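Summary of Year 1 activities. Much of the first year was spent building the evaluation harness for sequence design. The harness presents a backbone, in tokenized form, and records the residue chosen at every position. We chose the following record to illustrate the format because it has been used consistently in internal testing since the harness was completed.
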């Protein structure tokens, strides 16, 4: 592709309007997650506890903005001040849970439709990460850590509020805290936030901002499609295992285990020799 045409495409991607089409994809995928998280009890729960179902869905949809506002000391409910977004999210929630014969849910779970919606959600995820970094940079221009943190929670806030979202449905799962077992979207949001911070605050990246943004979009979409189509859920795992083995004590733990194992083997061997000798003495007697 011609470099100028590629740059023009990147500029168009940065100027994409998220409302309503990409917002629809975000709401659909999030509501599908909530419904699938209910497993076989989704129909019973949605009929018996519609308010709790709606609240948990809204919390997941707007989790990034709610959590980011709380961390930055801004009005928490400012994340839900847009009436159009609330109406859109509520309509999507109703169709996913209450459409006749589950027609909308089955359509959204149809693989080609789900792939398209997942790709669109990753586009809006990149936008949220970018906006979170930019917003945090205006408030704390010298704190890279805060920029990365806000970009991460804006991009994947639903995972960080998963415990609270389930609690609204009467389920307490403290082991689901995102910091204990970070999901791939959270790791990807951290990487994207770091890239945006480097691009904004340093001169290490000489490429135009539009190309950097477009590259992050491709990164998100590619690995999401790999997860949906190929089952590659976390490509960071091999690098994490290597890092932990080298820098987090894995090598030394293995060496100490091997040494202690040899020591135990030696002592047990000597004990067996002593037992053998004593048995021989008894036989002679």
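For this record, the design step produced the sequence shown next.
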């Amino acid at each position: 592709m011609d470099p100028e045409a590629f740059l023009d495409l990147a500029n168009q991607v940065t100027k994409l309007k998220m409302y309503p089409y990409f917002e629809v994809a975000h709401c659909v995928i999030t509501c599908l997650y909530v419904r699938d998280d209910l497993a076989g009890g989704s129909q019973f729960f949605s009929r018996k506890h519609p308010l709790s179902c709606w609240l948990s869905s809204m919390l997941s949809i707007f989790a990034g903005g709610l959590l980011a506002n709380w961390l930055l000391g801004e009005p928490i409910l400012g994340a839900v001040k847009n009436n159009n977004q609330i109406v859109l999210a509520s309509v999507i929630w109703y169709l996913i849970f209450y459409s006749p014969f589950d027609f909308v849910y089955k359509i959204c779970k149809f693989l080609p439709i789900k792939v398209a919606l997942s790709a669109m959600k990753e586009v809006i995820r990149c936008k949220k990460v970018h906006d979170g970094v930019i917003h945090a940079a205006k408030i704390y221009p010298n704190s890279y850590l805060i920029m990365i943190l806000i970009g991460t929670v804006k991009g994947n806030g639903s995972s960080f509020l998963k415990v609270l979202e389930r609690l609204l449905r009467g389920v307490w799962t403290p082991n689901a805290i995102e910091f204990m077992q970070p999901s791939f979207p959270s790791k990807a949001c951290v990487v994207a936030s770091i890239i945006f911070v480097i691009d904004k605050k340093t001169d290490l990246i000489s490429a135009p901002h539009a190309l950097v943004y477009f590259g992050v979009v491709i990164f998100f979409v590619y690995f999401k499609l790999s997860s949906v189509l190929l089952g590659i859920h976390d490509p960071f795992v091999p690098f994490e295992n290597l890092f932990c083995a080298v820098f987090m004590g894995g090598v030394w733990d293995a060496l100490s285990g091997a040494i202690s194992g040899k020591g135990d083997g030696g002592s047990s061997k000597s004990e067996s020799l002593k037992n053998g000798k004593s048995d021989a003495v008894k036989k002679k007697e």
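The longest helix spans residues 250-284. Quantitative recovery figures across the full test set are reported in Table 2.
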